[in-house]
Amino acid sequence: MDLFNPYNLQVITFIVLNGILAISIYITLATGQLSLGHAGFMSIGAYMASILTKQADAPLLIALIAGGLFAGLIALLIGAPTLKLHGLYLAIATLGFGEVVRVIFLNLEITNGALGLTGLPSIGSSLYDRIKGLGLNADTFGLSVLEIKAALTLLFLVLLFAVVLFLTLRLHRSRIGRAFEAIKADETAARAMGLPVAYYKMLAFVLGAVLAGICGGLFAHITTTITPDDFNYHKVVEILSFAVIGGSEVVWGPLFGALILTSLPEVLRAVAEYKMIMYGAIMVLVMAFRPHGLIGADTFARLFRRRKKTPSQQAEEGM
Amino acid sequence: MFWQQLVNGLTVGSTYSLIAIGYTLIFGVLGIINMAHGQIFIFGSLVGLYLITEVEMPLGIAFLTAIIVSAVLGLILEYTALRPLRKKNVPHLASLISTIGFAILVEEAMHKLFGADSRAVPVSLGSEMYDLGVVQVRGVDLIILTVSLVLMFVLHFWINRTKMGKAIRATAENNETASILGINTNMVIVATVVIASALGGVAGSLIGLAYSALIPSMGLNLGFKGLAVLILGGVGSITGAMVCGILLGIAEVFSVAYGDSSYRDAVAFGLIILILLFRPQGLFGRKV
User: Fold this and answer.
1) Which residue of B has its CA nearest to A90?
2) What is the pTM of this model?
3) Shortest distance, CA B149 to any CA of chain A (angstroms)
4) Other beta carbons less than 10 A from residue A227's beta carbon
5) A99–B265: do the CB atoms touch at under 8 Å?
6) A136, pLDDT greater than 80
7) Which of B97, B104, B227 sits opposite A276 (nearest CB)?
8) SS3 call for A312
9) What are the phi and psi torsion angles at A226 (to 5°)?
10) Does pLDDT of A96 surpass 90?
11) Which of B80, B109, B175, B225 is most buried, taking the most CB atoms under 10 A from its CB?
């Protein structure tokens, strides 16, 4: 298999992009809030970034950040009333939010309605222009222009993913992360302990939205075309299933889910006709046999315990 | 014009009510939202439509088949996606996901069996017009209104007056206590899921009559409307589901008649966001 085949590279790029999306839903779920509005935030980020790059000729990086921040701003606005809701109420309200956003984008002039925006600058091209400015071109690496563009896109995403993952792991171990965990475990108890629960829930909601918005911008500038339908209910289900099938207790769960569910359609291309059937069956089966997801908090602990069992380590575990 | 739109809204709304009652019953008893409801009843209705167009069965039998198929699908849902999760201590997210998975399966089955295209309902039934003074009503509108209203009253009576209804209400109140007091809660749950799905089957068939067409993807769209009504009426309130379904139908029809038709599908969720802001427990819900 030719690794530098642009198609393969793009598949891996989407796995990484979905990895970032998985982190975005993980952060919101970390406080026990089930948000079905991530596709909505993604579309807000995507349209914001696309309009900036296409109509205002803004630099790509600025546009991506602006898209993320704008999605976060909207999350802040709709979060104030909706975060008072719990469980399924929140789920339906955010699902409704996503649908309203989609219908609005279908009808606005600046978003070009159902046809969507096309001809957006691609990340690969703009990065390639950048390195050409440094006096390098495709021949330097012995690759075709298409290949180098795909490789650059992937490189950019992997770097971004690494940064986001690093920050998430840091967040998880910080005071904020522990607060999130406390709220997820028992909101009432957390409040009784004096945690500003509303503040932390809002923080998780907005952080998730910002990340989703950035992913939207990335998605738009990888595919170079977006329509409101790219962010419909099916996208919601896809993002949610990363977390639910992979497991939402540790960040590795959603990442594993994103890896499996994004690569599965490629692996199963021979039986592509039955792809969705398998997808549905997997969801039902995983919930029946491992309702906390494939990777739980105990998975790694069990793995590591089996591997090494020196007395000092046991003492550490006991602490 | 106004009265005419009101009647149209009432007709559409009464089918929304039937859909929403399906959600409400299952939520009340099981505490979960059945995301496969829409797909289940459209599947049933499509089978009914298939019998009419391909096998040329009489309307009544096809209608009955639609209801039975929906009910059977509900039964399958209960045994595959709901029951395995019930015994274990699972996050409430899990049942939502397994019903979404089931919905995908049903949707795919529909595409394989019936294709993704819109299928016309070739029934000339009810195309005649009745002049009722201020409004003209199609025969089919009268059928839809009558069937849904009668069903709603029967259901209301059944839930409030019969032994089975009492068992359902007890299980909804507290599953464990009900089972300690000798109610076969498993049986109640099965009955609830089946009745909810069958009601959906009725709604789907009526919608097919109203629009004179059925599309597999309607399940998702109508399911969303039902969910919106569920929240509007107050989760778990059957009266709320009935009244708010009709309200939503009227609101939609008016938004098309007096506003921009392209925003029709946003009306339901726009209302949800408003209601959640001002009365989070829904119009008919109890204060939590």
Assistant:
1) B276
2) 0.85
3) 27
4) 18
5) yes
6) no
7) B104
8) helix
9) -135, 145
10) no
11) B225
